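Anyone have tokens for DUF4374 domain-containing protein? Sequence:
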Amino acid sequence: MKTIQITKNIMLLIVMTIVAFSCSSDDNGGTIVPEPTAISKYVVGFEAFPVGQAAPVDYILELPSLESLTIGEISVEGQGKPLKGWRFFHSAGNTVFTAGYADDDKCISYQLDENGVLKEKTNFEFQSTLDNYAAIDDNTLIAVELSASVTDPAATSIPDRSFYIINAETGLVEKIETHPVDSSLGDGTASNLPYMPWVTGMTLRDGKLFVSYHKLLPDGTFTNVGADKANVAVFKYPEFELEKIIEDTRTSPIGVNGHSTGIEQTENGDIYSFSPSALSAGFTTAVKPSGILRIKSGATEFDPDYFFNIEEAANGGKLFWMDYVGNGKAIARIIIDDTNGAGEWGAFFKKDVFKLVVIDLNTKTVTDVSGVPVHGHRYTAPMFVENGKAYISCSTDTETHIYIVDSETATATKGAKVLGLGLKGIFKVTN
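Reply: yep, here.
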């Protein structure tokens, strides 16, 4: 019996030696390093009032799972990274970017390290506020540097717009393209006013960058010029050669100041834009209906056969914000009463201004989303969608919650409570 046991022990030792050798060496005698396991986390841009401070502060906060958005509470107390001042949030690939507004001239990038911990990757500075962003692919973020006024009274031209081409992996600026979009010094008459372009959205398709914009008086008042038409500049990309300006007189300028985008692309390459034409959304005049235009796949002109007048549609009104979900559907905020805060940017700050709807771009229908109260919220990042569900931060006078919206059924489920002013962006990143 002892002989049998000794034999078993020897055989076990041989097997263990072989296994250990196999795990520690490759065929060339080198050590095999196991592949690291990819870790994914959810990251939010969080706006809150710190205790003892009068002004709100933005934070970046990592969450362990998608469930964190659906139940319980989200707070930065004892966690999260406080940032400087009011900020924009955006992402490209697995990098989250946050750029300062009035109080900070720095754009910071964040990524997960090899241990799955959110860390600052790098940062860069800019001259004027980066006020519009677009992830044109997983590797590239474009940010546009905008100024609202020409301060030199002797100026003989309107300053060009600066497009920052940012590498999503390194978080650094690869180049800056300074280029005119559409501007005029006018001649001093009411029929030929000076204006400068204010970019409101960008999307890349087939080597062409489509850029939507407003025309504003170059005096810092954000007064609309030519509010009776929609405008898009078409650039050859990456050369940044301006090919054409396209216009449409069926609706007003595209997009809203300071939001993610006014122009988006669907799965089949069609491009849709939305126009608010709303006095409570920063427009100084509203002479055309709020609506949606289309640029068909392969085309570089607005489709003359497509216009969706949102104001005339059942359940419609004036659009404030719209994001494409997929399958021909978009989720949007519609202003309930445009006189509420008209002329004073009320839609940006009030808490009783929006209802949430699903827009079917193909059938031209608007459906109210059940389960979401009348609310307010200024969202600076594209809507977060996972597994066909959209996760949206909505604030009332008393509280802020995440709502999980099913665009197919136009229903929503109340998710986690946000112990702060709201979430400016929700992102998923992987190391």
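Residues 2-24 form the longest helix (23 residues).
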